[in-house]
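Fold it.
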Amino acid sequence: NIANQLCPRDTGLFTDFIKNTDTEPKEYTVNTQGAASVWATSVPTGFILAPGEKKIIYTYATPGKNAVPGTYSLDLIVSGSGETETLSHPVIVKNCFGAEFSADAQEAQVCPVETAKYEFSISNSGEYRETYDLSLEGQIKEKVSLSDNVITLDKNGQKNILAFVTAPSDSGEFEFTVVAKGKTTNVVESFPFILKVKPCFDFSVEVEKSSYDFCEHTVVEVPIKVSNLGTAVNSYDIKLDGPKWARLDKEFAQL
């Protein structure tokens, strides 16, 4: 029965028929019990039926705003002349508030200090219009900016969001998370992203040895090895700090 599947703050109606099958008039009292009874009201709560007479009892159930999704018991206890009948109505509280993230890619690769762009969408998977605050968590959250910080979505509505990330100067793998929190509900959803910073500009300088002995007026060649350890072609200015009689055979290299 779909009537017992409710969102918080929605009202479900349950109807029960009571018939006096005795040969004498009977007085009846109605009570509710079970986990959902705190949300329920039955009318009438007391009445008298003549022999063969029927009565309809209406029970209204309205789960509270903060009701946790799940199945709750609701029992209608009808008593009369020492007899008791129990009528059960499970109340199912649905998950009526939610947000869903989706993205074609959750990972980007860039060189140090470059800007990475992520595109993702947030959809309202709940039953009601909702406004979401967007925030950031994770080790590089200070380096991330979002195109929107607050969005309002109708039921099944969707919004595309951009995230721009300035990569750290060091290479490595970094993470950040976008968090969406409902303003009118306690729904919270999150979505993680990975940023891989490649060692695009790493290089090394090596010499065979650090000291030489030689006589005056002689020429000694000191090999210097410059290696591009990065993933991109790079240009290098080479400068020499030393006595005036020392010089470089080249002051520029592209590797």
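The CA atoms of residues 11 and 62 lie 4 Å apart.
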